Automatic annotation (TrEMBL):
<dbReference type="Pfam" id="PF13715">
    <property type="entry name" value="CarbopepD_reg_2"/>
</dbReference>
<keyword id="KW-0812">Transmembrane</keyword>
<protein>
    <submittedName>
        <fullName>SusC/RagA family TonB-linked outer membrane protein</fullName>
    </submittedName>
</protein>
<dbReference type="InterPro" id="IPR000531">
    <property type="entry name" value="Beta-barrel_TonB"/>
</dbReference>
<dbReference type="InterPro" id="IPR037066">
    <property type="entry name" value="Plug_dom_sf"/>
</dbReference>
<dbReference type="InterPro" id="IPR039426">
    <property type="entry name" value="TonB-dep_rcpt-like"/>
</dbReference>
<keyword id="KW-0998">Cell outer membrane</keyword>
<dbReference type="InterPro" id="IPR012910">
    <property type="entry name" value="Plug_dom"/>
</dbReference>
<dbReference type="InterPro" id="IPR023997">
    <property type="entry name" value="TonB-dep_OMP_SusC/RagA_CS"/>
</dbReference>
<keyword id="KW-0798">TonB box</keyword>
<dbReference type="Pfam" id="PF00593">
    <property type="entry name" value="TonB_dep_Rec_b-barrel"/>
</dbReference>
<comment type="similarity">
    <text>Belongs to the TonB-dependent receptor family.</text>
</comment>
<keyword id="KW-0813">Transport</keyword>
<feature type="domain" description="TonB-dependent receptor plug">
    <location>
        <begin position="136"/>
        <end position="261"/>
    </location>
</feature>
<dbReference type="InterPro" id="IPR023996">
    <property type="entry name" value="TonB-dep_OMP_SusC/RagA"/>
</dbReference>
<dbReference type="InterPro" id="IPR008969">
    <property type="entry name" value="CarboxyPept-like_regulatory"/>
</dbReference>
<dbReference type="GO" id="GO:0009279">
    <property type="term" value="C:cell outer membrane"/>
</dbReference>
Amino acid sequence: MKNISLNKGFGALWYPLIFGLYLCCTPAQANNRLRQMQSTHQQNQISGTITDGTNPLPGVTISLKGKRNNTVNSDFNGQYILSATATDTLLVSFIGFKTAIVPIRGQKIINIQLQEDMTSLQEVRVNAGYYSVKESERTGSIAKITTKDIEKQPINNPLAAMQGRMAGVNITQNTGLPGGGFSIQIRGINSIRAGGNDPLYIVDGLPYGSQSLVTTSLANGILPGTISPLNNINPNDIEGIEVLKDADATAIYGSRAANGVVLITTKKGKAGATHFNINTATTIGKIARKTDLMNTQQYLAMRREGFANDEIVEYPDYEYDVNGTWSQTRNTDWQKELLGGTSYSNNTQASVSGGSENTQFLLSGTYRRETTVFPGEARYGKGALHSSMVHSSGDHKFKLTFSADYVADKNTLPGIDLTNAAYNLPPNAPALYDASGKLNWENGTFENPLAFLESTFLATTQNLISNALLSYKLSPAWEFRTSLGYNDIHLSESLTSPSTMFNPAYGAGPEYSALSVSSAKRNSWIIEPQLNWAKKWGALEFNALAGTTFQMQKSQQLSQNGAGFVSNSLINDLAAAARLSIVNHELSEYKYNAVYGRLNINLKDRYIINFTGRRDGSSRFGPGNRFANFGAIGTAWIFSKENFLNAIPSISFGKLRVSYGTSGNDQIGDYQFLDTYQVSGQNYNGIIGIKPTRLFNPDFGWETNRKFEAAMEMGLFSDHIFLTFAYFWNRSSNQLVGIPLPATTGFTSLQANLDATVQNTGIEVELRTINFKKSNFQWISTINLTIPENKVLAFPNLEGSTYANTLVIGKSLNARKVYHYTGINPQTGIYTFEDYNGDGKIASNDRQYVVDTAPKYFGGLSNQLTYKNWAFDCLFQFVKQLGGNYLTSSGFAGVMANQPVEVLNHWPQDGAGAATQVYTSGSNSDAVIAASRYSNSSAAFTDASFIRLKNASISYQLPTPWSKSLSAKLYLQGQNLFTLTHYRGADPENHSGLFLPPLRQYTLGFQISF
């Protein structure tokens, strides 16, 4: 008999009962329950803004937890939009910040502030040229600044943004005029040749010529030194600058990397909605420091005493300042009159960017206009256009990156810098203008310095840089890439010297007017196919690349002079000149070919070894020496990942790295090994002849550089303290210099490889600390210090060469031999110097005292503070060095030229403690000769160390609650704000009293994005 369970029977009735009750519910209850079920699964548009607490963060990855196929990136404003349900959770990740996990919980607008993760900054990839590498895994020495550092400074040249910010990189500004140059040394000077120490510049993969096209004879009166070619690159378009310093980082560039590599990467578009950005700023500039010169009373007293010492009672007719021709009471501050103006600079940039996941674009334009502190209408204008496109196929196998930059500038300056005149004009010199407003010549007695403004130096440049990078993923392990680059630069210069710049007393008309013109152009192209391979087996990872380079460069220059014009109104027309001459007309061609490779082995993400190599061929060397091999090995041990350090949690990161290798130098110019000829310009029986200019040397070969580095990187307390300590050793040999030849050969030297050796060693220290970090306030400090040492280790037969008075074995290439000043003779009041050879007289062979102007150490200290919408940044630059003081550019005490007030301390009034010898009007030949030696003695060099507030910037992010797509920022910037120094001169940076020093500048700007 079957047992019937009552429980089981009633249990079966529950299902229809529940279903029946459900059917009995009211429609409102049913609809409400249905809406609840739908809302749980309904897709909504979630939007918001991602920030770091102060600024929006573009490129942030936003995805849904568990749904990785639904991923978007924030746009330029940090904004994002994606579809999600009410119960989804956002995963927000960005390099350098901690990943945020944010439940949606029915919200439709979610603004997220990411917290910076200093440890993850080690995962940032840095550009090493042909490849990129994680910061934590790099085996080479690479310094970097980004667009955030550049945009805080009112600069026109990218090199200015690097000053004081990179260990091992010493940069000096040559002049405060727009379009001027900079000198850069990466870990010291390697080559004895002055023109052989420039680094290799790479702009978006394209080698950019470091040799200036400017004709020195035209520009040397107003723009000293070599004019930097980077003036033709717009700083506003730069995303980042990396400097490769050691052998591991530079060897892959082979023959061109002996002096380091500067990699410049321009900005690219980012995926997201179309974004517009407008940035406009106005800068005013003034001279930062004046020299304390004599006033009229002091100056005339010096002049009269000089004549009295020379026993001259009646002042000559031509001594207008003291004989009563000029006012004896007029007192003019010529520094204020000639250099005391205000320079104005206006800079405006507009850009549009955006794109989809597969295609991003960026288009920007910049216009800059700048004046000088000189009187007159000198001005500088620059226009720049930057475009970029990045495209990848749907399967992400094919990728194209294209960029093009076009910059055109026009620089109109006086033919001669007025700085030296401002320091030397007598304070009682006449007024610049007469009663009718014309130039005052004071009846022919006054050489009016404003006459220099009649002479005009004009330079116009057009520069095009374009690059395309194509890559295709052949398989997960193999990728093929090709880089195609083209550069075309044109430069036109002219220097006018009209007769109106001469004193009318000379009676010079337009027949004495002159015009010098020069036109130059350089174009180059490069093709670099490359194959990459990456594979990982367990804990072992391999990365390899192999490639080849084909490069061609052509340069052309034509320089002409014209003199004698019917009218000065025709001075800019060379065809109107009565006399024409061709100064220089040359065409040169440079060809370069190379193969290169890299193999990187990474074991357990902690033991890394990196091999790089390159075989180069250059047309600049003889047939048997055109090819050379360069290579390096770099190793790194990330010891912080070892298990035995788990017990020390304060060590968040630690790495030891060592590298050794070779690189080369072919910066010698074209055709230097050949026996070349030049048109003589001499007419013989109607025939223009030629003359030999260089002797053939088939053994002419590469200058080589060996580099070693050992470094340690350590992060403490989650990288809140991060220290880098490096020691470097570089030795350059086989120097490309001219070997002196006897005059009987008809040549002064033979281009050859000299067995001379130059060594650079040094210590670099970098320290970054997070001093304070809260949600609304953050303070980060960074300091870098470099202690370099440069030595000439060997130079065969130095004493018999032309370098005998400029080089010293065991001293730096900045050392020079001078007279050793020993004081003032108490009987004659004349400077005395050490008689090294003991022959009882002072002559040129007594210039044996060595002064060294190489920096003893240099560096920078920066602070970054943010508080809510406010941001403050400042950079102090410091240098310890010797430099030439005012004596190197001023006349001797007593002649018709103003002097610093220090000259008042003179003999005999101040006796044995006097700093200046007896005054003379120029008739005391012994005093004149001694003054000349004095300006070339140890007394002419003084402490030129300085601490300078190089840059300060404060900005405020304006709140825009009425629009989530709009952001605006107001900022104030300062450059060269103040300098602490004991230097006896105008500026301790460039040690020159002949050219305008860097200006103190203030910038007010406004940026708006929408």
